[in-house]
Specification:
The complex is a heterodimer of chains A (about 325) and B (about 260).
Chain A lengths: L1 H4 L9 E14 L5 E14 L3 E5 L6 H8 L7 E6 L2 E2 L9 E4 L11 H11 L4 H14 L15 H12 L6 E5 L7 H16 L3 E6 L2 H7 L2 E6 L2 E7 H5 L3 E9 L13 E5 L2 E6 L4 H10 L3 E9 L2 H8 L19
Parallel strand pairs in A: 3-8, 3-9, 6-7, 7-8
Antiparallel strand pairs in A: 1-2, 1-4, 4-5, 9-10, 11-13, 11-14, 12-13
Chain B lengths: L1 H20 L1 H23 L4 H35 L3 H4 L5 H35 L7 H22 L4 H16 L1 H5 L1 H4 L5 H10 L9 H5 L6 H28 L4
Helix pairs in contact in B: 1-5, 2-3, 2-5, 3-5, 3-6, 3-7, 5-6, 5-12, 6-7, 6-12
The chains are: A alpha/beta (about 325), B mainly alpha (about 260).
Chain lengths: ~325, ~260
């Protein structure tokens, strides 16, 4: 996270996206019809130049939010303004880009052809389209596959082509719905770097993910959704209270029942070593106890609260079927 | 306004490119040419009827294969985009649903135009080779066929904007079949006098009459189609297309893409 903090632009202020009471429910059932709320009274602000992580478990309303903003579904109530324009206006779309979750791009086209098509929809000239396609394909690492039909692409390559089309108009506001989905580690690194480059270039990014480590690495602020409701929004530091929660001490040459180690919150053997969770105030006494018993302190590491801890501790754990504590990601939402 | 036209043309160009890259389209053209060649063989078996049979089979093949393309590609134009979610990134751009819908229609219309032109050229070539003369009068039958195909595409897009592509294909085929026998509905008064005339008239009015686009026999016999009739066919097609595309567009505009 510290890497992300370095080189940040000055504190952002101007909101580029404001939603008030944005709500959407979907019809359920065929004979007996009901309505399932997908998003309830969303009040959200996205500030210029920031990367806002939009996180939450399956069915929390992340993708519904993107669809509402993109005009793919209509809100039941509420309003939104994007780049100073009403949501329904198409004027702001010239200045925005969108990558949907699991994008399907025409498989009979090559990425160069698809980018050309996307560029035409923005009214770019032929020269500008060619230049932009070259730049973007190089940016997402697809320059060698520029003329290969996308039906031959892997899921990761499609995701990268999707990312390129979202940037074809050099947008100032970028909506990315699960951009890491389906990518291998190299692809994920590429997207991560690309998002950080967008921030350096002064762009604003709304970025949904269920991979919490990505949100921690990339985002200035995080908005947390659950069951269609926005639970909290804030800087990661505020949200997670990133102060050191405890210290992890790795020691060797001592037994678990050594006198003084009862000060540790937890002690568990790891091979021939002992890992201890220690409160900051007890560290000196625990280290003294280890050394006094003839043991050796191999390392002391501060442990911060993670976004994942936040979800599990404050929101009552993952939804059914989403996995046990300690998993790095939830299902898609 | 101009930007909107350019976006619509971009969608149309892409829809045309898609249909051209669909192997089914090549097969249909190939089969249409085969049908024309078969007509040529049949013509050699008849006495003095060879030219008529050739035109009959050629025009019928154009109509049939054009209808197959209009129904099966037409129903997939919008519904496939919705099912595969390929329209999501497009509608997030400054492209309206109307521009997308009309662009798709225009793209397939151009495909059908190219398809019919290729078939007409093949038929003309066959006539030149066998009869030593081309017959420009064929245009009097091919132009209304094209209008009828546009209407079929309109119905295909209307149905596919409210239901799945399979059901849309079934409904479109139903409309085309009923439309081709619309005159039979009008004649029901004589066959079944118990049916209220108002119902017969209503049915006849609300169903498209594809007979307005059918001058194949007339042209095969070498009779010219009066310009007034072609003008009426054009007006009829434009009127119906306005209604059908308008309804399809209204449905497409109000739809949620969940």
């Amino acid at each position: 996270m510290s890497a992300a903090v370095e080189g940040r632009p000055p504190a952002p202020a101007e909101p580029v996206l404001v939603t008030r009471g944005l709500s959407k429910s979907y019809r359920t059932g065929h004979i007996v019809q009901g309505r399932r709320p997908a998003l309830v009274d969303l009040d959200l602000q996205l500030l210029r130049g920031e990367i806002l992580g939009y996180v939450g478990p399956n069915g929390s309303g992340k993708t519904t939010t993107f669809k509402l903003l993109m005009g793919l579904v209509r809100p039941d109530r509420g309003e939104a303004r994007v780049l100073g324009e009403p949501l329904a206006s198409r004027a702001w779309r010239v200045r925005a880009g969108y990558l949907p979750e699991h994008p399907y791009l025409y498989d009979y086209l090559t990425p160069a052809e698809y980018l050309d098509y996307a560029g035409r929809l923005f009214g770019l000239s032929r020269d500008a389209r060619r230049r932009r396609a070259r730049e973007l394909l190089a940016l997402v690492g697809l320059e060698r596959s520029a003329d290969v039909p996308m039906r031959r692409f892997s899921k990761g390559m499609l995701q990268r082509a999707g990312l390129a089309q979202a940037l074809v108009n050099d947008p100032e506001l970028v909506f990315l719905d699960e951009p890491m989905s389906g990518l291998d580690p190299v692809g994920r690194r590429l997207v991560r770097d690309l998002v950080l480059d967008l921030r350096k270039a002064g762009k604003t990014v709304l970025f949904s993910t269920h991979i919490l480590s990505d949100a921690e690495t990339l985002c200035d602020r995080v908005a947390v959704l659950r069951g269609g409701r926005l639970l909290s929004v804030g800087a990661l530091g505020e949200l997670l209270r990133v102060d050191v929660t405890h210290l992890e001490v790795l020691a060797s040459g001592i037994a678990r029942d050594t006198a003084g180690l009862e000060l540790a919150r937890r002690a568990e053997p790891v091979g021939d070593r002992l890992r201890l969770e220690v409160e900051e105030g007890s560290l000196a006494r625990v280290v003294a106890a280890i050394e006094g018993a003839g043991g050796r302190v191999l390392g002391v590491q501060p442990v911060r609260r993670t976004l994942e801890d936040y979800f599990f501790e404050e929101l009552g754990g993952a939804p059914a079927g989403a996995g046990a504590r300690g998993s790095a990601a939830w299902g898609e939402g | 306004m101009r930007a909107g036209v350019n976006r619509t043309l971009a969608v149309a160009a892409n829809a045309f490119r898609e249909t051209v890259r669909e192997r089914v389209l090549y097969n249909l053209v190939f089969f249409a040419i085969l049908m024309t060649l078969a007509g040529l063989l049949l013509g050699q078996l008849s006495v003095r009827q060879d030219e008529k049979i050739l035109k009959d089979i050629g025009l019928a093949a154009m109509d049939l294969f054009g209808t197959l393309i209009a129904v099966f590609i037409g129903t997939g134009l919008v519904s496939k985009e919705i099912e595969r979610r390929s329209l999501y990134p497009l509608l997030a751009k400054p492209l309206s649903r109307g521009e997308f819908f009309i662009g798709k229609f225009a793209g397939l219309a151009f495909t059908l135009f190219v398809n019919l032109s290729v078939m007409l050229l093949a038929l003309m070539l066959t006539l030149v080779l066998t009869q030593r003369r081309p017959d420009l009068g064929l245009l009097g039958a091919v132009y209304p066929i094209f209008l009828g195909l546009l209407l079929t595409v309109g119905f295909a897009m209307l149905f596919s904007s409210v239901t799945s592509s399979t059901l849309a294909a079934v409904l479109t085929v139903g409309v085309v079949i009923v439309g081709r026998y619309a005159d039979v509905i009008r004649g029901m008064r004589e066959v079944a006098p118990t049916i209220p005339p108002a119902l017969v008239n209503a049915l006849f009015t609300i169903l498209p009459n594809y007979a307005n686009f059918d001058f194949k026999s007339q042209v095969a016999y070498g009779d010219p189609v009066p310009a007034g009739l072609l003008g009426w066919s054009t007006l009829y097609a434009v009127g119906w297309l306005g209604v059908v595309l308008g309804l399809g567009l209204a449905s497409f505009r109000s739809r949620d893409f969940q």
